[in-house]
Amino acid sequence: MSSATDNHIHENNHHNGSRIAKKPKLSSSVITASEIETEFGHHDTSVARINNGSFGCCPAFIIAAQHRWQLRYLRQPDHFYFNDLKTGILQSRTLIKDLVNADHVDEISIVDNATTAAAIVLQHTAWNFREGRFQKGDVVLMLHYAYGAVKKSMEAYVTRAGGNVVEVPLPFPVNSNDEIVSEFRKALERGKSNGNRVRLAVIDHVTSMPCVVIPVKELIQICREEGVDQVFVDAAHSIGCTDVDMKEIGADFYTSNLHKWFFCPPSIAFLYTRRNPKGSGSDLHHPVVSHEYGNGLAVESAWIGTRDYSAQLVVPAAMEFVNRFEGGIEGIKKRNHEAVVEMGEMLAKAWGTRLGSPAHMCASMVMVGLPVCLGIGSDSDALELRTHLRDAFGVEVPLYYRPPREGEVGVITGYARISHQVYNKVDDYYKFRDAINQLVQNGFTCADLSG
């Protein structure tokens, strides 16, 4: 089916106000390799983009859908505001609700990104401290590998309000879920050791750097058994990357971006708030206060002032796009996982290193050890080497510095986080392999990049 025909279907669905099915009745066959290449033809072909995890990607089909929404707004803003916006966002929320198996659409709010969602939840926690529902010194638990912006939100909201933040140290490289569960239990005991209550646990579903899939269901069950008031899952990477089911996971709050692994343009994420969670989450509010304040988080989030809402309105188009692939989003996840593990193992073998975790603890991203001889000895070394790979070799990949533990000698201190998305080709990873091999052959070390 032509793109023009797809666009016609998409427009008619919106004008009719009908809900687009998760598996639309398209007469086209499964998307071809050449069609995928066309959809991502705007990518810089001189760069091996193996970093989908940071910013995601958006195909031409969805960019076109976004542009149509933008033009509808610019054509007649008043009509758009009074007739299109609320209906369109409700349609997106409904599709997300079905996608993540939530009980009710009221549990789904659309926000800009997972960082915004974290601010909403932690702002609510801060109010509980300030208004006396939580006692000074009560605990909020989070993983040591929590996303940097979430750690800053902890400072801005929880610590300033009198809460005590306890971090769960996680091993890396990691060999099993048991290692994570063990450290989590120890941190819970530390949090409760002085008679304080653990009011909130913030758990990543897929940690960002280093990337590891966390056994969230098991950790949440432990939280319930140990009397933790509420659980917030920061799952910035999850939608389109790993399995997401609100009923199975059982969190009070859960957020994921749709612009990382679900092909939407920036910026769109959802925040799930379980109906009547323990301690009540009904008084959550968007940090930007606008005219809808007090009408519920979903309604507040749907209007935070005049801005471009088009990214939040293309979820139906994203659904159409993923269902052009064999198996839909489930098929994409499976193939991405298998491909990234295969490419990670290829790189590790080429460099004589190892993966940062077993395959079952990876999703669509894998940590791959870099040769020790590169001399990655700090975070700044990792950042400078990343820049060098981009500028000199056309390879875009984030690097992680793993400090050696006491007594460790000759261990791998540098890891690359490689991603795989539908646009990636084997040559992208060969390009990265060959770049590192060339640096090693040239006797390069990170010290060569300093001053």
UniProtKB/TrEMBL annotation:
InterPro entries: Aminotrans_V_dom, PyrdxlP-dep_Trfase, PyrdxlP-dep_Trfase_major. The gene is Vigan.04G377400. Residues 85-366 form the Aminotransferase class V domain. This is Aminotransferase class V domain-containing protein. SUPFAM superfamilies: PLP-dependent transferases (SSF53383). Residues 16-25 have a biased composition (Basic residues). Keywords: Pyridoxal phosphate. Coiled coil: none annotated. The keyword Signal does not apply. Pfam families: Aminotran_5. Residues 1-25 are annotated as: Disordered.
